[in-house]
């Protein structure tokens, strides 16, 4: 329950008087406030700075240090205050959490000291408000990576007992670990450079024989270039095979981008070897040579900046996509317009719309080659609009990409978007779990049998004492309120699992082969009666009526749901008085098959426990089974 | 040939028109010219309504709470609603927090109307404590009166079956979906029937205030439950 609304609990309880004339059943007794304290100010002395607040404020969160009796350990008898030897600045935001219900992360605070304080005071960081959560997570991630980097530097000391394979892999990944690795690193770099330069120089026209036209060097010194190429490819092949051997996960290595680049770089050579000077395929062979330029990408292993650039482009995929899309739209529009505008003029270069694409692109990127120029007035007007809009369309997404690159370069993060998503999911899951704690405490306390009718009749004070010991007053009042609502409407609160259970089992009987899944069903209350009326049933003795609502003991192992919910047992009515009200319930609801409804969970649960077959004659066994498992929980 | 010339001229015209319109729009955006005399002004945002309650002595006189109790109540009230008044949405939010499993908004709506005695769409602190004073410290007569007022949605002095059905559905909505036994469509209706059988003495289809109070005073359960929340504050 949130902080502020704890103050409104008296109002909610008072408003419950509105249900009283409507209810048909007697209401449960209210939890008594034995020693009703006047609300008092308490003094919290944190390293000399005194904070004062009402005791009620702190009681709002009973599962933290300040809200529970744990703070009594810090009580100072002489000065009548609670003394904490902690940071007073961070304590401010801790105390504000009690006051306002929202936890804020102060920007000036160091992230680790903040987390320590939160851990000391028993507050989970996940409830930091949305306003500060981003900042908190960013700082935390930064910190974690910084720590990791520090650790990695320490890890460079050689670990003993590493296999050859592991040594090699480490050498490949971090060239600074050993001299051999460094040598290998520089040698491969050198050969990549040689290979690229060779490819380039091959096409330069060398000096020619007097009466022949100029030939590129590649054709003049074929043998030399071929030897150079062979040497480089051999080195690359050896390197690739060594990496493949050393990789801890070969499959993953083969799928990685760098290894694909390696393969693409050396493949043309081998294909060229295999294919002889066949006239037909020489054209294709020439094309394959183009791929040799991919060797330059091998440099990205050597350069951190190149990798970051590649990663930036990948992470800005959406902005790039938007840029491309808007450009395409604009190009098509303007090309069409220009084509129709220039159609009238003679000797126009704008022969078709695709031909106008070239003009549009050149104009929008402000290149302006001048090979295609509009001649009509309309064409000139639209051409100028085209160039103006081109500047805008291109200028807009570029700063985004630039800032992205700068951010990544400075922080040097890998896959941070993916990790943030996971973290967000985990955070929401945690908050959701703590929020569903709203309903489960009520159901849990029902199990403890604190709200059965015996209490009302006997009104034994020991049980009331037990009550206030296990739950805070606020909680017990809230539970009392919910219990009143149950009495008013004659229905009981159950948890999600059991509800799905009872609904699914009604369906399971019709379709024994179907495997139940938690997520599939939605309650359709209208059909419950009709479905249940088809069942056979044997009349159950009264004493076993309470026993049937124990399916969770058997079926929770079948469920893949939340662990916390699965351990909750529903203990509706464990006494004879309870049975009597059961009968009352049966009478007040006019729907006949309700009686049968009590049987089907038992039978179908039984069916579930034993597989998918219904074995009615075994019921007595099952009852005893139930009773067996029932007794530990049945404590009143 | 002619058509080609016309095409070219047509496009020329279009181009010039586009240019002129674009420049006018640009000037308009820049604020240099405006089209209509009654240009749209930024609507002055109504500042949040702030409300300060009457003095403590006055409230003490009007309600049956002591000074200390009023202080505690006001502190809680002000924390949740710093502006001093509760509007219906905030009211629904607060009330729904107590019933996490169901949907308390319909019932909160009826409650809001019951507390908002002057029907101005907001509940001030005075309305709040007046209502609480009746509920917690009032006589049984007053409490029943209040409950009747809650059920009588249109405040005409009669509770009809439709009104009661609305209230009943709102109450059952608060239970939510996960109940045992599973809530059926006709459960609220049946409950209303039971209620009317009990309350409607002359069987004229409506329940008046006298029938209501009469019947409740004869019912032991209801009488007992009226005293249930006396020690709340």
Describe the structure.
The complex is a heterodimer of chains A (636) and B (233). Chain A is mostly helical. Chain A has helices at 3-6, 9-15, 55-59, 88-100, 111-120, 130-154, 164-173, 179-202, 217-220, 222-246, 250-255, 257-274, 279-290, 304-315, 317-342, 353-364, 377-395, 397-411, 416-436, 439-447, 453-458, 461-470, 473-489, 496-508, 526-532, 551-555, 563-566, 576-588, 594-609, 619-633; strands spanning 41-46, 49-54, 75-76, 81-84, 492-493. The radius of gyration of chain A is 39 Å and the shape is elongated. A four-stranded mixed sheet of chain A has the order 2-1-4-3. In chain A, strand 3 and strand 4 form a beta hairpin. The two termini of chain A are 27 Å apart. Chain B is mostly helical and 233 residues long. Chain B has a single domain (11-25, 54-232), classed as Orthogonal Bundle (Recoverin, domain 1), CATH 1.10.238.10. Chain B has helices at 2-30, 56-62, 67-80, 88-96, 105-115, 125-137, 140-151, 161-175, 187-199, 209-218, 220-226, and strands at residues 85-87, 122-124, 158-160, 179-180, 206-208. In chain B, the strands form two sheets. Chain B has a two-stranded antiparallel ribbon with strand order 1-2. Chain B has a two-stranded antiparallel sheet with strand order 3-5. In chain B, helix 5 (105-115) packs across helix 8. Chain B is elongated. Chain B starts with a helix and ends in a 7-residue tail after the last helix. Chains A and B meet through helix 1, helix 2, helix 17, helix 23 and strand 5 of A and helix 1, helix 3, helix 6, helix 7 and helix 8 of B. Chain B: Residues 103-138, 139-174, 187-222 form the EF-hand domain. Chain B: GO terms for molecular function: calcium ion binding; potassium channel activity; potassium channel regulator activity. Chain B: Belongs to the recoverin family.
